[in-house]
Amino acid sequence: MAANIKTIAAAAGVSCATVSRALNGQPGVGPRTRRRIERIAREQGYVPDAQAQALVSGRLPFVGLVVPDITNPYFPAIARGAEEAAFELGYSLLLVDTAWRSDRVFRALDLLTSRRVAGLLLSVPMERLERTPDWERLRPSVVMAGQPSPHGSGLGAVEVDDELGGRLVGEHLAACGWRRVGFLAGPREDAATRRRLAGLQAAVDASGGALDLVAVRCGEWTEGWGAEEAGRLLDQVPVDALFAANDLLALGALRAAEARGRTAGGDLAIVGYDDIDAAARCRVPLTTVAQPTREVGREAVRRLVARIENDAPLEDLRLPPNLVVRASSDCLTARKAI
Amino acid sequence: MAANIKTIAAAAGVSCATVSRALNGQPGVGPRTRRRIERIAREQGYVPDAQAQALVSGRLPFVGLVVPDITNPYFPAIARGAEEAAFELGYSLLLVDTAWRSDRVFRALDLLTSRRVAGLLLSVPMERLERTPDWERLRPSVVMAGQPSPHGSGLGAVEVDDELGGRLVGEHLAACGWRRVGFLAGPREDAATRRRLAGLQAAVDASGGALDLVAVRCGEWTEGWGAEEAGRLLDQVPVDALFAANDLLALGALRAAEARGRTAGGDLAIVGYDDIDAAARCRVPLTTVAQPTREVGREAVRRLVARIENDAPLEDLRLPPNLVVRASSDCLTARKAI
DNA sequence: TTACGTCGCGCAAACGTTTCCAGGACCGTG
DNA sequence: CACGGTCCTGGAAACGTTTGCGCGACGTAA
Hints:
The structure is a homodimer.
Chain A: H1 5-12, H2 16-23, H3 31-44, H4 50-57, E1 62-67, H5 74-88, E2 92-97, H6 102-113, E3 119-122, H7 135-138, E4 142-145, E5 156-160, H8 162-176, E6 180-185, H9 191-206, E7 212-218, H10 223-236, E8 241-244, H11 247-259, E9 269-271, H12 277-281, E10 288-290, H13 293-310, E11 317-319, E12 322-324, H14 332-337
Parallel strand pairs in A: 1-2, 1-3, 3-4, 4-5, 5-11, 6-7, 6-8, 8-9
Antiparallel strand pairs in A: 10-12
The first copy, chain A, binds a DNA duplex through helix 2 and helix 4.
């Protein structure tokens, strides 16, 4: 019942080798036998066994995507792009959710060493792992997707220009006439925190005093922490703009501001980062920085596969983010009213 | 360099067979040789080749999850649960995004016939496929996750009790004193549409005239269509409650209602379904039906693996949804005010 | 007719592991 | 001492495919 290359060979009265060559379109098979073999294969409903093929070719047509939490809407977008590209290239996408646990990251890397996948897309922050993976051996078949490559790893990366994103926000705030800006972010050691802050700082420096960075608060990437810390900030420091380095923080800040009688887009600007679905839907639509996540996923897979198959050299790719202006920071209406 | 079972055997002065038995913890190996082999394996950094194992055992430790759109927040939740369970059971999760195209569904089924995966979780609506897959052959290794099994397929399913969900909504509306309810949903042939409506109808019937179903509108599962159709409905029919069979529709309805000067939770009840992230965050927090999606994913994988490994019989599982009451339908405040 | 090139095809090894079967060492009992 | 049994180990086949090599047949040109 299970259609082998052998059963076909037997039915066609030829050897396995001929069947293999015929079905793979290789030369060295007469046109008549070729047609006969193709017909029989069709009749038997033959599907080549990918495992056996992989055993001899050395790789399965799988690429793994490692994310910290697929429930966070940033990652499905990457997954979507990655899956598209993988499908086009004849690969399937393996999803690994590490649940923010770094031991799971190492389990994911095992997928590579045990040859269960041909390559790996790493989309988890690598800042603090308890031990250092053997990048040397992993390098050819790993690429970072939407995250900077770990220091000294030499891994290729497809990422979004966080510094540019921070700068765009700063310039926008300055252009709208906001002056005293506070910065809210996740852990200080995260690359996203550092780079977005650096971009903001650059805009502040370039503003010639028009913009002032009056507070920097680092903590967690959660809405709860954002609400707490934004509340403290608003109580302690006179600010008229808040740049939260992530939309969840911004949503928290929005809550805290409302609780204190401040109105986003009125006497306070709030800007987020990521452009998650909720950013456009909340009470005051949120100005934010949209990341081309789908392109990140797609390009990362393309580059990975190119290197696996042709070991093409991998140059890094840095994609530009996109400022999305909404009501929470736009003061033009307020100005008109004056 | 590549550590084989052979290189270990050579280094330990034994045969491959002994190495295999030792490393798999099987009996029939002396304790001294066993320790020696384990030590050498560790020294050489040996990792078993999953492909070769799969070739002999007949299956790879992969299960595929087929979703129509990973960007839709309903599916990452399933994926999360599925990944958790798969990880616990020693499997990896393959993600297939069909982008709502039914030819992609068939490509996904090919994963099974070409033995690239051990089993498949189908999480796409199967109502209208252009041809019928060979369920007979697929049955042992496919289970539906969060979707009803296609008519006549005999596939096992882990799903959420949509009829109960609809009934809960109806009962809640009746209990709050709303009377004339309109129903909004996606395509009429979708099982979700039919079942949620049936549940609502049951509650209406049981209300003894307290509740009245005055309009049923079917179309698409999108926010845009929801806004349009809700607008038409509000203009044409006097209703005081809207049950949208999906949160996106409900969000659209919310917009349409506001545009007409109606206030959700005030002179109009709006209830959604799914409890997506945005439901709690929108201008008027939305009453909705939360689905235990994570459990769906988890249970589906558990059952699938149980059947693959022990071919355990698969009885269907129907999980209860959960009504989440928020401001958009709660009229207690309104009553108190009266 | 002979020699040579080309074409079509089969044989067998290889990929890395598991597993069945059998052989040998050793021990205890009769 | 002989015999049976248990325990440890090795040989070899098997999983399904790809691929290098060689062999025979056929055709063409000298």
